[in-house]
Amino acid sequence: MPSDKVKIYRPTDKEPFMNERQRDYFRKRLLSWKEDILKEAKETLQHLQDENQNHPDLADRASSETDRAIELRARDRQRKLIAKIDDALARIDDGTYGFCEETGEPIAIKRLEARPIATLSVEAQERHERRERVYRDD
User: pTM for the complete prediction?
Assistant: First the structure.
């Protein structure tokens, strides 16, 4: 039986960094992620509208309000994430995607695979987090 499996493209360090194929790969990943978030947000909104009925029982009403607050916080996080995805898409368009904002060096492909909205290399992110800890401890 012949193997007709289509090899799915994954960026590697062995090819030119942020070539057209890599940019296209990350653009598709980001757009798909954004689409999933928007779909989930729409479902959450529908759920909140369905839940917006009057609860005669005080405990049910309190529980519903708690659920609503949690869902609204999640929606706020999703809104911020969509903004970061849009920023990453803009960086793909302007040619700065995949490069560290602090050093200008390429961000490792593995890091971009794990966090496609990353703007800092691992080293720059660690420095940033160390500085935050120092200021937080004051």
Answer: 0.78
